[in-house]
Automatic annotation (TrEMBL):
Residues 1-16 have a biased composition (Acidic residues). This is Transcription initiation factor TFIID subunit 13. It comes from Clupea harengus. Belongs to the TAF13 family. The lineage of its organism: Eukaryota, Metazoa, Chordata, Craniata, Vertebrata. One of its GO terms (molecular function) is protein heterodimerization activity. It holds the Pfam family TFIID-18kDa.
Length: 124
């Protein structure tokens, strides 16, 4: 057990980057591991990808989300993130822009369907 503490590879479990991803115990809290594993498998990786691969991908995802959030907070209404701010930031990336538009359209359709369902069942 003492050998484990002296092993430099043991230190890889700790986040020294200071980007706020770590929990109070020094070990990073993995927020998207399950979803990323499923996505990696869906895109052709092994059903059980290497933990290191998932960790690197998760670090990239969290970095992207953090940067986009900071940028979105700096435009529009200061200190608030709104959907329009995110759409504004990705407007020059056609693939992301198209995907966000699809998801927003789908969200609106779901809202209308839920409202129609509730009105039919509860008779507003």
């Amino acid at each position: 057990m003492a050998e484990e503490e002296d092993d430099p590879a043991f230190d890889e479990d700790f986040d020294d980057s200071g980007n706020g991803v770590e929990s109070g115990h020094g070990k990073r809290k993995r927020l998207f591991s399950k979803e990323l594993r499923c996505m990696m498998y869906g895109f052709g990786d092994d059903q059980n990808p290497y933990t290191e691969s998932v960790d690197i991908l998760e670090d990239l995802v969290i970095e992207f989300i953090t940067e986009m959030t900071h940028k979105a907070m700096s435009i529009g209404r200061q200190g608030r993130v709104q959907v329009e701010d995110i759409v504004f930031l990705i407007r020059k990336d056609p693939r992301k822009f198209a995907r966000v538009k699809d998801l927003l359209t789908m969200n609106e359709e779901l809202k209308r369907a839920r409202k129609a369902f509730d009105e039919a069942n509860y008779g507003s």
